[in-house]
Design goal:
It is built from eight helices and nine strands. By secondary structure, the protein is α/β, with parallel strands linked by helices. The protein has one domain (11-253): Spore Coat Polysaccharide Biosynthesis Protein SpsA, Chain A, CATH 3.90.550.
Length: 256
Amino acid sequence: MSDPTATLGQVLVIIPTYNEAENVGPITARLRAAVPQADILIVDDNSPDGTGDLADRLAADDRHIKVLHRPGKQGLGAAYLAGFAWGLEHGYDVLVEFDADGSHKPEQLPSLLQRLRTADAVKGSRWVPGGRVVNWPKSRELLSRGGNLWVKLWLGLPLGDATGGFAAWRASTLRGMDLDGVQAAGYGFQVDLAWRAVKHGFTVAEVPIEFEDRQYGESKMSQKIVLEAMLLTTRWGIAHRVAQLRSALTRRKVPA
């Protein structure tokens, strides 16, 4: 396969970590093999299991691996925003969101980068033709599908998997969508980013991925995170529908 980063510029893969000591070594090794030209930024939230120290050792052995230490656990969205800010400050052209737990396959990143050549952002999707999940209980699948249906109903987002966390962004896209206003800290962050991109007129494409549940460590998913995402989506959706209604009423009042 040709170099997937060709014409895209410098690529940075951002990996937030909190207690991922069992996973961070293997996942960075697979990423380095899948896209050797890319750099990796591990954003560690002061993991008590020593993930940050392990990340430092990985970085000492490989110039393509960088580490950003944060003082404590502040949520997935905050970690990614810190990673975006670091990457934009250091001149990267493409910034990739990537989970540390092995649920995202590094070997599929080239497909996202290839698609990014003709889009402003690309999301890896579990719920488009060709996408699938592995080792998920039916309840988890229903929750994810239901959450994406909820997003579509409220916001009308033209995406099959707005909640997915495997995504590639052009730096120009991130700069053009008001990251300072991002509200979500948990998994609603993914919906927030996609919604902002679409509202600002950017093209968000999807490519199918295989998503596999983590084998080591504990999931960060919780009822609080799900509730936050649903409440935020509902609030955004109400504002969106009210704006649509006002626009329609205004058009009716304008004489032909």
